[in-house]
Automatic annotation (TrEMBL):
UniProt similarity note: Belongs to the DNA polymerase type-B family.
Keyword set, alphabetical order: DNA replication, DNA-binding, DNA-directed DNA polymerase, Nucleotidyltransferase, Transferase
GO terms of biological process kind: DNA replication
Catalyzed chemical reaction(s): DNA(n) + a 2'-deoxyribonucleoside 5'-triphosphate = DNA(n+1) + diphosphate
Name assigned to this protein: DNA-directed DNA polymerase
Top EC group: transferase
Top-level taxonomic group: Eukaryota
Organism, scientific name: Aphis craccivora (Cowpea aphid)
Amino acid sequence: MRKKAVINPMNIDDDCFKWAILAKHVSVGHRNHVGKNYYNEEHRYDFSKLSSPTPISEIHIFERRNKGVSVNVYGLKPGKGGKVGKGEKDEKVGKESVVYPIRVIVNEKAEHFDLLVIEGSERMHYTYISNFSRLVRSQKTSHESRLFICKRCFTSFDEQVKKNKLRGNEALQQHMRLCGLNKPILPVMPEEGEVLGFNGWANMQRHPFAIYADFEALLEKHTERVGTSTDGIHAHHPMSYGYFVKAAVPIALMEKYDIPQVPVIYRGSESRDEVAKHFIASVTALAIRLGNPLKATNVPISMGVEELRVHNAKSVCDMCKLGFTETRWKVADHCHLSGRLRHTLCAPCNLKLTTPKFVPYFFHNLSKYDAHFIVTELGYDKESITVIPNTEENYISFSKRVMPDFSVRFLDSCRFMASSLAELAENLLTRPGDFEKFWETAKVFQPTDMPLVTRKGVFPYEYTDEWSKLEETALPPKHDFYSVLLEKHVSDEDYVHAMEVWRHFKCPNLGDYSDLYLKVDVLLLADVMENFRDLCMSTYNLDPVYYYTAPGFTFDAMLRYTGVKLELLIDYDMVLFVEQGIRGGLVQASERYCRANNPKTPGYDAEKPPSWLVYQDCKYTSQQLVRVRHGRIHTLRRVQVVRGRTLELLDGMTEKSNVGRVFEVDIAYPDNLHDAHNDLPFLPRNAVPPGSKVNKLMATLERKERYIFHYRNLKQAIANGLIVEKVHRVLEFQQSGWLVKYIDLNTEMRKKAGNAFERDFFKLLNNAVFGKTMECVRNRISIELVSCPRRMRKLINKPTFKHVTTYTENLAAVSLQMSDIRFFKPIYVGFAVLEISKELMYDYHYNVMRRHYNDSIRLLFPDLSNPYGGFLQGP
């Protein structure tokens, strides 16, 4: 308001949306107070069917009932030190408040309105933006020159002449072509010179505590219909829980703080919610007992003679690898819980190794199962709950604060190891009878028990549908182990195992058997995860319990191992440019049906020429894929007609060039190439195919406009006959093989792997690095779990409020629209890897298979993920 860019009609009713719209037509000098001046203008528009007050979600009704009218809505939030709020008499806005887009249409109508919503303590309030540029420009610059501002993201363009770049309205129109493809958002960009490097130094110390837990449930028969096409089979109600605390602290400390050293198993009564409530109470009490030693204990360092000698002999820091100086003096870093020497560090690095402020609870399949029991009970008090959502119903992780600066963090081990617990436990058996890797299980059970407790147990889940069955004194017959959901019986081998366990441990009833089953599951999870932690610590010197997923872990491991400093994109236009080039991996079926006439298979017809189906798995080496960009990124603008000749900027460029480029071009696909390229056309593009509503990546033979290429793909397309008609823009960057070191490390570790899990894990780490480099931050969602009524009211009154899901009378999940997005991901790396992998696939088809077999081979189902499927016709 102080900028005289906003008109705020002072009203005493709930129709502020109406008055904000009409403010545009009220004469200057009479706009501040709603009265006759506003009532005289009500005839202009149809405000019927709108609620009072009007939520943002109903504005489309107003637009539909008033042809030729469009409305944008913007919000206001505190910036640094700023406050936004509605007082009794006026809206008081902090000096550094930030405007952000909430609802922005793509094409403004003849009569357009920009509204600013101000968040109040009880409701939100609409005002009319009379001068959009004046309102927003102070967020962009302190200069007085004319600005052209995008209303969707606030990217601005001035009229200053810049070499090789558009300016003013011309630059804005080019920007809008890509910006209009995305939802309106306020992008938060890195500062100039900011880089992405490893900073997870605290994650290099092993967390002193890790807790492994599981629930068992009664499967009450359920006959209600869920949705229009789903029938509920069972309702799951927790009947017991178990957990085991893995502690790397002295036993005396565990005894002092009453930390359990054996698995804790609790089985409930017939109360439906009692088990989950008991679990939360137990978790909270235990977390406080664990947090106290972490915060209060500081055992003095204790070094042996040899440790002291090694420490004194070191001349460089174990972490940063820099030499010790007067300002980076040598420090003996030690564990404050045990006094044991951990590292020889410089003083700055020593300060980075902070004490953990959380205790991790791991469940196998937390996100899809156990979380449903836990989340609903977290509203027992008003302490904060944080959540990392994957979807509105599936959480990657969630945390509950139990004391100041300390929380319980619930994590899913499946997000590190996607295999079943049975398969993971089997991988720990290097040979029959060798239980060396079952450390925690061996501490609880006798040697004679080990053959029975080092594999996943068997339990009649669906048979156990009521509490009374836990009192049965005999193992149910084999047919009661049948799973309706899976539609299969338990195997004879598994049932024999269940009977052996029952007899060996002399189970008095099914309840005792279920407790044993639960204890074994918890200990197996502990052994699997502790072996996994050891593997990660020995290979990458990082503890995975500090991370939420394997992709997050491997990306940090890559940054630490390579030492690379990745330049971040500071220009939102560059982000849009690279995003447009990320099209995904090509997967298609080029033919509907194909049958081979193979002489070595039944049904061979000697009267017809022989033919074969070829299925090949193509592997990309690190040297092929990882020479990708890392720094000195800047844009050029070239416009030229280049029919019949190679582009000037491609001259001399090879896959080993230190400089790489990304081109935006118009490119033609000559008719004479269509038959030859029909199996696998170049230039796949995202579009909605005929008869569909879903965007697909399709390889077509059409001419492409403003197609974004990596230079290697463009060279390949030109070499195969495609004709570039015009170059619009070029992104130039420095590139090197900085990722080779990490890819090769995991490849070597995979060769040395002793089981299937380790082989798959090291492959996953390489693949996940790629996925993390092209992570789409736009897909993130904002959800807050709320147990405080005051906080709930505040969130509901936010203009970014979407909807609320009530779990219990004390807990609800509030879904919010993102007001801004931080673009701090090196998506250019993922783009380059994806494009180069396409180049290799096309090269293999056209320059290897086609060159060798000519027209005798047809491509059936290309897949960027590796397989090459073809049909080979014999002579």
